[in-house]
Amino acid sequence: MGDHDDLRKFITDLAVVHGRVVLSSGREADWYVDLRRVTLHHQAAPSVGRVLLDLTADWEYDAVGGLTLGADPVALSMLHAAAPTGRALDAFVVRKAGKAHGLQRRIEGPEVAGRRVLAVEDTSTTGGSVLTAVEALREAGADVVGVAVIVDRGAGDAVRAAGLPYRAAYTLADLGLVA
User: Fold this and answer.
1) More confident position, 129 or 29
2) Contact 52, 120 (CB under 8 A)
């Protein structure tokens, strides 16, 4: 099996949790995709990086990240997957709000101003988190080339409506789930 098939199996085996849950969007669901069980897993995380690099291979960017916490391990997996190929890819973290102390930065890591960046998220239902990150990145002077997620729960239309290309490694149908 290749990385894409391997990662799908990790997601279905480790991340899909059945039972009534309330999503961050406020919607209720009979199952939840807890991708941190995958993005922080010793075997699955490298696949995350390779799959998302492959998914966005035709987009030009040199930094990747998004709103903390969902995007953090995704961006780091991509950074680590890029390194052995000789690709210099930085990662960054977008805070939900600016810090009131220290350097008072909202975006942590290497500077993003003037750079082509990719906004990522583990999974997205409404697009709210990733679009919050995009807004902060644009305010910081970054050129956001697109949005990529591991699992799309329905955010594609909202992200495209904001004028951004959007890609997901998997849809709910790919995982055998019904919205």
Assistant:
1) 129
2) yes
The beta-strand segments (E) located in the chain are 16-22, 28-33, 63-67, 90-94, 107-108, 116-124, 143-152, 166-171
Count of H-run helices and E-run strands, the chain: 6, 8
The predicted structure's pLDDT at residue 102? 55
The pLDDT tens digits of the residues spanning 39-64 come to 999 999 999 999 999 999 999 999 99
What are the structure tokens assigned to 21, written together?
């849950």
Provide CB contacts within 8 A for 135, sequence distance 6+: none
Please, are residues 25 and 110 in contact by the beta-carbon 8 Å criterion? Answer: no
Measure the CA–CA gap between 114 and 140, rounded to whole angstroms.
Answer: 9
Is there a contact between 175 and 151 (Cβ–Cβ < 8 Å)?
yes
Written in H, E and C, the secondary structure of 54-96 is: HHCCCCCCCEEEEECCCCHHHHHHHHHHHHHHCCCCEEEEECC
Tokens of 68: 């903390």
- Looking only at the bridges linking them, the beta strands covering 90-94 and 107-108 are antiparallel
**CA separation for the pair 42, 32 (Å, rounded):** 21
